[in-house]
Amino acid sequence: MLFVTFQFALFLGALLLVLRLLSGRGSAISNAVLLGASLVFYSLWLPAYLPLLLVDIGVNYGLLQAMRAAAPGSGRRRALLAASIVFTIGLLLYFKYAAFLLESALPALQTLSLELPVPEILLPLGISFYSFQIVSLAVDVYREDGPPPSGLAQYALYIAFFPQLIAGPILRGRELLPQLAAGMQRTPERTRRGFWLLASGIAKKVIVADFLLAPFADELFGAAGVGNARFHWVGLYAFAFQIYFDFSGYTDMARGIALWLGYELPENFHEPYLSRSPQEFWQRWHMTLSRWLSLYLFIPISRALLRRVPDHAGRLAIAATQLITMSLCGLWHGAGWHFVVWGVLQGVLLVLWPARRGRGHRAPLRLADGPAIFLFFHVFCLTLVFFRAPDASAALAYLEALFVPGELPGWPRLAAAAVALSALLHVAERALRPRARDLQAWFARRPGRAFAEAVAFGLLVGLAILVSGAGGEFIYFQF
Amino acid sequence: MQENPGQADAGRTGAKSASRRALRAGLLLACFGLGLGTVVWGGIAWLRDARLGRPTLVFNYSRMMAKRLPRIAAARQEGRPAVAVLGASGLVSYPEGRRVPDRLQQRLGVPVESLGMPGSGPFEYYFLADEIADAGPAGVVVAVNLDHFSDAWQGAYARPQLAGRIGPARLVEAFALPLHAVGLTADRLLYYVALVQAGGYEPWYWLTLRQAQLGRARDQLEAWLQGGRYEPRNDSGDDTPERRFRQAVRATTIERVFTGPDIRHYRASSVREHYAAILDGLDVDHPVLQVLDATIARLRRDGIPVLVYVEPIEVDYLAQLGLVKGPGLSESLGRIEAVVRGRGATFVDLHALLPPEAFRDAPGHLAYDGALDGPAALADALAPRVRDALADANDD
After folding, report:
1. Nearest residue in A to B216, CA atom
2. Complex-level ipTM
3. Is A426 a catalytic residue?
4. Phi/psi at A257 (5° precision)
């Protein structure tokens, strides 16, 4: 069920009503209702997905409990962690990558006269996200770095909590489990913040990403090489902003819905296209994925490598780890070689881009940062061609078209205007984000302002309904 | 027990604040509705004269059914039950009087009602099976195009919204079918059915039309930004750089998909795209086979004779490309036949019926104005089989 559909509005309305009627009956009851609703939400996509999710939850909970019972540092505990990771990632590999790996191996198999049929496997929704969340909790419990779940129901809700089940944010146990133990904390402030996030998400996803940007980006990537270089550049910018507004819009909605339910989810984006370097970018783009990659891939691999290589090879080991991590990050985004190429390019950028000394990603922007932002944005856009194009050869054709004038005169002014508007919104987000709570409090102070707020929200939803005829799925659902 | 005055005061205060909260919530909701209504009504007023920006075939289909199904029901009441024919453009993309159902009627001598719609396929037939059965046709002829089994077809022409026409009694069965192949998730299925059952079909139609008009409004904005005036009927489509670009895209697509500008034949890669599933041998659990099976079962449950025929394709051209090799094609046809016969329906394989000159384009539309009249030849082959199927049903 997409967040931007009437059926979801009905589902959420019914759930909030039930939770309202049950308020005061304790967190166990409300969490049980929330778990039931999350499983219904998941199965309303395709009922066939549900058993896999339940098996994943059941087996991993069993392993987690056994791990907790084993002595810290013992071989049994390590074996149980390994079993949990192998089981979870094994399922992910099978459902997401089996067909891709077999297809990739076909030429080699054919030379050995082996004919293996490529299976048609339906990708279970959200498996990339919830698998990472399962692994994250297993490792944290193994390391005793955060609270364990208090029972199967709480563990299941941690995995299946519907606002974040399909496309994140990817949580850690310490973020959600204590909240689940405390029960829903619904306050007027949270409800208001939820409204703002929901409004922001609807505007980003339905109006900016789907209506203003997607049609042009789709046209261009569907016909690489046609038109002229100006069309291709505008198409590339359009896609860059489309994917940002699509995914960050989804996250805003997920966070807003969670707030209505009384839970806080972490932020996932901090205006990534205003980054001055790839290092900063990955601290601002899909932040919960970056954190996962850093905590559960980069740090363990680099530590293991550093222990094994001589001191003078330390930098090389770090660079190799960055390349491995980002290649896997690319593969996580999709089962295709062009995603791997995109990941490798991100790794190369991280290795080669000069590190900014003294000024981290939290340093305020200055006018002098303009050239660095401009340069990195364009380099990142060029790598995005591999992300969006259906395959590597289409990506190369698109890249070539960016630098060939072409015969078609003119340039796409509406699409360019949409891109310019998106860039302005992106900058405005940076200016507004730190002030959002003050602004919300200002609206809350007078009843008249609250009514104005409600009218504005209505205007926005009305506009979204009007333009949502061509509403697409969230780009990140496919990952 | 006497009530404590303090408790009574607290109760009154509580009730007062609860009613105040309810009033405030009501006012906020009204403000929200005001904002929403302003945009939707304002936008619709602005769009009133805009032309449709994208196809609304789902509703065209529904409208067509709303006109023709009553004719089938009326024919039954008059004692001359009609034969209903389901199919895609291969059935109906000819001048009036020369379509396949028209030709069939001429040969059968009984009323034949066309329920054909360009781009439709087994999924649409399934969604509409309840209504067709309820109309009480003498029999149903189902045209199956071998392209129906491709992802390309399902991706290009899917109309999952038609699922709203499924009767609630069939919902459980529908959940078990692979309707996700046309993008129909369980929540959408439930929502569409609930919407239609609640009588929300007309408002839905109305809103969807307005949304479709908005696409055209975007074109107008595009033209305005280019300093020109939008001419929707400009055939050359070169009045703005965007339209010139789209023309170029169209030309490139034609070049990539077809062997020439006359779209007479697909290139080999496009043939693979459209017929790979069939040429390689259909899986027994192919989504289209399952849905076709369920459709026939639904019609047969009401005792309606069903005849399924495979539409002609240009097999000579496929053979010329070297794509018809091995047992794949015959296995696929065997699987379709097994499904059809398994439900007690009649199967007629006409895929190799016609010579190359009977086709006018790559998707398999038939030539009708040359030496060989494709739809007539098809009806000639089909009519006796339909007659037999109807006679067998009467004997039973």
Report:
1. A467
2. 0.81
3. no
4. -65, -40
